[in-house]
Amino acid sequence: MTPLYLAGPAVEPIGVPEMRAFLRLEHADEDALFGALLRAARLVVEATTRLVVLEQSWRIALAPVPEDGVVRLPLAPILAVTEVRAFDAADVASVVPASDWRLERRADPVRIVLSGTALEARGGLEIDLSAGFGATAEAAPAPLVQAIRLLAAHWFENRGDGPPQTERASLPLDVAALVAPFRRLRMG
After folding, report:
1. What Å distances lie between residue 159 and 17, 104, 124, 134, CA to CA?
2. What local confidence, expressed as pLDDT, does residue 128 receive?
3. Where are the domains of the chain?
4. CA proximity to 152, closest of 2, 4, 15
């Protein structure tokens, strides 16, 4: 199963002016850097938690179709499944009717249960979906937003120009503490 990123969030959970105010900087000289740090921090928080913070479009490609008809989705939370396409042996796609699949949001991981024509897709499936807590910055959980803010601030203040560290943590401790309750562990 391969998740393919189609489109990112329209906004970041924290804007550049907000980040500048958080760091008590009055000039806009480093706004481009702030934008890059905020995006990178969001991506790290998403990778660590295995959760999508703000609405993004993804495509899940899989072949073959699971024998049990259950597709465990590697992304969460799922806002909507836009379309499911089945490929025949000649690699021709057809849209699978909504009556031949069911999204189970309460399962962990979230899954799609296939039936009917979806199970007969000899060339595999593509599932287009949107994932995230919502489309606006306000939809993102406050602890994850704070983790993004603190991680971006940490990177801004520690640009590799200090003494080499003898022990490297994957995340600063305060950031790790904020994301810990949201981490989705990978099983088996």
Report:
1. 20, 44, 45, 32
2. 97
3. 8-53+135-161+168-182, 56-131
4. 15
Cα distance from N-terminal residue to C-terminal residue, the chain: 15
Give the architecture-level CATH label for domain 8-53+135-161+168-182.
Answer: Orthogonal Bundle (1.10)
Strand-pairing partners, residue 85, are 95, 126
| pLDDT(104) > 60 | yes
Contact 66, 47 (CB under 8 A): no
Q: What is the pTM of this model?
A: 0.85
Beta strand pairing call for 2-7 and 93-95: unpaired
Q: How far apart (Å, rounded) are the C-alpha atoms in residues 129 and 161?
A: 42
